[in-house]
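Need Nucleoside 2-deoxyribosyltransferase's 3D structure for a figure. Predict it.
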Amino acid sequence: MIVAGGTYREICDNPRWDRFFGSGLRAAAAITELSKDVTLATYAPPEWAEDIAMSAAAFGVKALITECRMPATFRYFHQLSTAELEYDGELDIEPLRVEGDAVLRFGMVAGSAIVRAKYAVFDPQTGADPESFHSNGSVAEHLAIVLNGWEASQTTGVPLEGAGSIILARENADVVIIKLGPRGAIVHSRGRSSVLVPPYRSDSVFKIGSGDVFSAAFAYYWGEAGLPPDEAADAASRSVAHFVDGHRLPLSGIEALCHGDAYSPRELPRQLYLAGPFFALPQRWLIEETRDILTSMGVPVFSPLHDVGTAKSAHDLASGDLAGLDESAVVLALLDGADPGTIFEVGYARKAGIPVVGYSEQLDPLHLTMFEGTGCVMESDYTTAVYKAAMKAWSA
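Structure prediction for Nucleoside 2-deoxyribosyltransferase:
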């Protein structure tokens, strides 16, 4: 397998993460125990080249590095925040040229890869205006496009239901996979009905690079192992659940992957109740951030701050909050600070049989007793808590 993609520095403040990976190196590292021979074609500035080559070699990857002038760094405040790109170098770089039986190509910050392949998988990773696989002269006998739901809508201008067939025809592709986050992925294959591939549960969620691993696993199982597209995508979904539980690389074979059960998302998610204090600026920020993230996942959120407000009597506030709670299928409780109102809402929810995902980095084990003892799912990692709550909303 040849992987053509960028190698970047990744920095995250919470949880702390500072590594050389990026889509190219991570994808290549992911499949070294699956594919017999993995080559990475990538760009790197001179000051990074040795480190990248050594990192690749540690995974058994042969790195073919083309020099570029400036390093590229992606910074995250937390894993679900929008990454900030730091790059001041040239964008028009001499393209990489790769040829092989099975090639995985990623869109890159700068430069491109011209591919000639029997089987090619293309993950554009270019946000609002994904490029065409063929636009730089790339050719493949069999082509699969992997992109997320937002990219699919942006590039076609139509709802997701119709985007796959448009991209199939426009790219003359055999397969188009549209990733839908906690809803799984839709596989569109030429001449066949679309198939929904489920997501799989994991104990924790390390989000950075999960899309890279999906594309890498799919490229191997479809382009090299010869599985049908829907089976290859299912193997990729299982691989992601294995990977995100602690950034586990390289991937094991399907039989040895560690992941939870699949779940079948509902056609429409149910309401999530966002419980947490909002009386100080840091508290308000966390409520706003969490609500925005959940909304971007397609989850309808009831937030007492936004849906009931504050300028009412205590009776009206409590009545409004509890009415929203009664109509919700799951609670995500932000518990740091041990706010009395939030604790009351958790107890009310558990008495009503409503599942609760609690997030706290600061409460000691003694203060978790009643939460854990009444069946709350307690998480100290923000990304994991948000994903578990969203998945409950989609499957309740």
